[in-house]
Amino acid sequence: PSPFSERELLKHGLKVPSYVVSNGVPPQFKKLDIKKDPDLKDKFIVLSVGRLAREKRHDVLIDAINMSKHRDSIQLMILGAGPIKDEIERQGQKLPNPPIMGYVPNEQLVNKYNIGDIYVHPSEIEIEGMTILEAMACGLPAIVSDSDRSATGQFALDDRFIFQCGNPRSLADKIDYWFEHANELKQARKLYLKKAEEYS
């Protein structure tokens, strides 16, 4: 479902013809006018959605927020289910604002994308990155890792949205940049919405 996965298949000996066809973004994921809850209105919401597994590198994301100059103003939301949920919750307790965690069905997930300030996908391994497409379709800019085992780099607008895989300092610098450049982030929302149209 991505140029990355096609390259991997060819590299490992695929001989039959191949075609890249994205899974596409379900139509319920779209820009909505939703206000943050009162207890979140002064927080910069960093959102991450997906399976809670070791290769998704939530540890890097938590460490990055802990290193951020603006850590006191950041609220991390990690939405999903998986085998290391308890471990992530324990790691998150070191943050000034411990992560909001839990599984959210799609009909509620669209609201979360629409209150987020930035989406972060720290994963080392990703075949397509459907959650990034969902975030983009809601106008949420995405920071992704530069992992050569991930398809997510194709979604970054430019280098300001790419951090060094596995490096929390690199990710903290990207988060701080976008925290401090609200007008650029607002413009990036429009650009990500437009980019998402390629995957309708």
Describe this structure in words.
By secondary structure, this protein is of the alpha/beta class. It is 36% helix and 12% strand. It has a six-stranded parallel sheet, sandwiched between helices. Helix 2 (58-67) crosses helix 6 and helix 5 (130-137) packs across helix 7. The model has no long low-confidence stretch (mean pLDDT 90).
Task: Give keywords.
six-stranded parallel β-sheet; 6 strands; alpha/beta; 7 helices; globular; 200 residues
What's this, in brief?
With 200 residues, the protein is an alpha/beta fold. It is built from 7 helices and 6 strands; from the N terminus they run H-E-H-E-H-E-H-E-H-E-E-H-H. Helix 2 (58-67) packs across helix 6 (168-180).
Helices and strands in order, then pairings?
Blueprint: H1 3-11, E1 44-49, H2 58-67, E2 74-79, H3 85-92, E3 100-102, H4 106-115, E4 118-121, H5 130-137, E5 142-145, E6 162-163, H6 168-180, H7 182-196
Parallel strand pairs: 1-2, 1-4, 2-3, 4-5, 5-6
Helix pairs in contact: 2-6, 5-7
The largest sheet is: 6 strands, parallel
User: Cα distance, first to last residue?
Assistant: 14 Å
- The number of helical segments is 7
Secondary structure: number of strands: 6
Q: Give helix % range.
A: 25-40%
Range of strand content: 5-15%
| Neighbour order of strands in the largest sheet | 3-2-1-4-5-6
Q: Strand pairing plus helix content: what structural class?
A: alpha/beta
Radius of gyration: 16 Å
